[in-house]
Automatic annotation (TrEMBL):
One of its GO terms (biological process) is meiosis I. InterPro entries: Immune_Signaling-Apoptosis_Reg. This is MEI1 protein.
Length: 302
């Protein structure tokens, strides 16, 4: 079925949402729900289809061209297609790298536009934000060096007679700029305050991947980002209201992040003791799977 469905997609236009959206969903699940052996063949089939990749290029570009919906909670058919497109491309990036599959057609994206979609949001629905963050995570994990992806509009360091300190940092973080990193971190923090479960999971995962990228590129910048006082205020905000327990998946994963990067001004020995105490008093068998997994990561990191 991959052959006829992918060929059908290649003959469509981005406006053919009724046909494209379920077709892209089928391709996405075909990648994720099959055996590793079949998965490798499925990736090869999709990446050899030039028409499909050209169609995906056009779909992603519609993210910046189509008008925003009436509100962030409203998911139009166009937004649903964009979600499917971003998720499929993120998966293709992941599996192309895993299997070193030959690429017959590259995808070009402006990194600034991708980052601004998260930083400024512009009434984008939660599901579309999550899908774009999935793509961003896949690109970060590959240091923006995938043979499938061409980053355009990259930040270049100008060779001035007296280079600014930020220029040296930008060179280390290339193709990201230092200011983009800080803007992205602040925006991710703001999205966490919404306390939407799906959004929180995606945001924390994106923060984890971003921190790993920064730590490899420039440890000083990574540690500086991890120790920002705003993180502590964010934790207090997440713990406010009805759920004061530290045993919330997003809180545990954030705490793990701060322990990993030694942010003692964000998480103290007292908070670590409180988490361990809550875990000791909880019925571990009744904890949700996401909480159990996050607690496991936290204790291993400690």
């Amino acid at each position: 079925l991959l052959f006829p469905v992918s060929n059908l997609c290649g003959k469509c236009r981005p406006r053919d949402t009724d046909l494209l959206q379920p077709s892209l969903n089928f391709l996405y699940w075909s990648l994720h729900q099959t055996t590793p052996c079949s998965q490798q063949r499925a990736v090869a089939v999709l990446l050899s289809n030039v028409s499909l990749l050209e169609l995906l290029q056009k779909v992603l570009e519609c993210t910046w061209l189509w008008s925003p919906p009436s509100g962030p909670a409203y998911l139009s058919s166009e937004d649903a297609l964009l979600c499917s497109g971003w998720l499929l491309v993120a998966s293709l990036l992941l599996y192309q790298h895993r299997y070193n599959t030959e690429v017959h057609q590259t995808l070009s994206l402006d990194l600034t536009q991708v980052l601004n979609a998260v930083i400024f949001r512009n009434k984008k629905p939660v599901l579309l934000l999550v899908s774009i963050m999935q793509f961003l995570r896949a690109a970060l994990r590959q240091n923006f060096s995938s043979s499938l992806l061409v980053i355009i509009g990259q930040n270049t360091v100008q060779s001035a007679t007296q280079p600014q300190p930020s220029s040296l940092q930008d060179a280390a973080l290339h193709p990201l700029a230092t200011q983009q990193v800080f803007s992205l971190v602040v925006s991710l923090q703001n999205l966490l305050v919404h306390k939407d479960l799906l959004l929180s999971q995606a945001v924390v995962a994106c923060l984890e991947t971003l921190m790993e990228y920064l730590y490899v590129k420039n440890q000083d910048v990574a540690l500086h980002v991890a120790s920002q006082p705003w993180h502590r205020f964010l934790l207090f905000t997440l713990l406010s209201g009805g759920q004061k327990s530290f045993l919330q998946p997003e809180v545990l994963r954030l705490m793990t992040l701060f322990v990993r990067y030694q942010s003692s001004n964000i998480i103290s020995q007292k908070e670590i003791s409180q988490i361990v105490q809550e875990a000791a008093e909880a019925n571990l068998a009744e904890l949700p799977e996401a909480t159990s997994y996050a607690l496991h990561l936290f204790l291993c990191q400690v």
